[in-house]
């Protein structure tokens, strides 16, 4: 009997080690699609908690919830990493209209940009000047801008296949529009929503005043793409129309919050770390289901899939749910700072922060040796229609972990619909497809498995 047991266990050991990469990956996809938990977690985050702006009660609830859920997975360690975060509050709903003649008004949909100041009590009403670039703003100069509301109306470029590129081409008007316009004496800023779709949703997002003193700051808001077109065509007919808006948002003092971290300790190289993560905070208008609830639950799912399929990693695998990506990046900064203090070697860090859509592949920030190793794994992903392996950016939260020798990566889902929802009230649970979300989690788990199995190339 003893011999039979010995033989059986030997067989089991040999059998496990004999599992090919193809088989491991197939099992990860199968488990994610047939016995996954990412969608249930997202349901709770979106529908039971909702928008999770840094410093809000919902953000606190999300910290508690994800910590409790990670504790159920039987990881080696789950903990909260304290970090101070900014707290900006939207206040009462914003209100805006176009006034084409005295008493003739058209209501439009706006929302304050994150970090903006409020309008003065009673709102602002002023003439407008429409621009499509910072150069145009500069050319117009103080004589044409002073006392007016600057309307930044550069649309995202529709013929760019990577919509993040189109976003990148326009985001400066949202981020620094108010700071730039204030230099020429503008009284407010209105920014066309960064979306490729024509609809009535205004899209918020972060903005900055740079070093502008408090007295020089002006309120800034986003306007929906439909209303931006209406406003632009009305301006083309009549330069004398006026715009009114009021918002009561406010920047409060920083508050205590946390990154949520879970870890499976590596069996052979416990001091080599692999991070998989997303950001736990979101904007407040929707539920933050795509941005970045999807990335949060997919990252949690990676560790759950390892447990579920019996993968015992050689290296230490961490899930990190970063706080405050949207308006400060404090969580990511803190995580990297602590990792450096402790002398932790992070060999590979993967972020999912581009929506819960059908995964296409990854973009990598690494040297050629490591990139070539990744290209050697490419065909393992063919059965899952994962074809995109390119050098490029990774993710805002993993960025601070960059070294000369490690690998940073970002999951790249199909991006065509991402900006329909990004930072807007329609970023809700129903906009996320269960299978697409699960495929993303399995794709991430597969790449994490390969980096754990083979380590860095150099
Ligand atoms: Zn995000």
What is the gist of this entry?
With 458 residues, the protein is α/β, with parallel strands linked by helices.
Characterize the structure shown.
With 458 residues, the protein is of the alpha/beta class. Helix content is 37%, strand content 24%. The protein has 13 helices and 16 strands. An 8-stranded mixed sheet has the order 1-10-12-11-13-16-14-15, sandwiched between helices. Strands 3-2-9-5-6-7-8-4 form an 8-stranded mixed sheet. Helix 11 links the parallel strand 14 and strand 15. Helix 2 (21-34) runs antiparallel to helix 13 (434-454), helix 3 runs antiparallel to helix 9 (289-309) and helix 9 (289-309) packs across helix 13 (434-454). The longest helix has 21 residues, at 289-309. The relative contact order is 0.17. Bound molecules: zinc ion.
Main sheet strand line-up: 1-10-12-11-13-16-14-15
Cofactors and ligands present?
Answer: zinc ion
Shape estimate: elongated
Q: How many distinct beta strands?
A: 16
Helix content: 25-40%
What is the N-to-C succession of helices and strands? HHHHEEEEEHEHHEEHEEEHEHEEHEEHH
Biggest sheet character: 8 strands, mixed
Strand content: 15-25%
Number of helices: 13
Classification by helices and strands: alpha/beta
Give the overall average pLDDT: 96
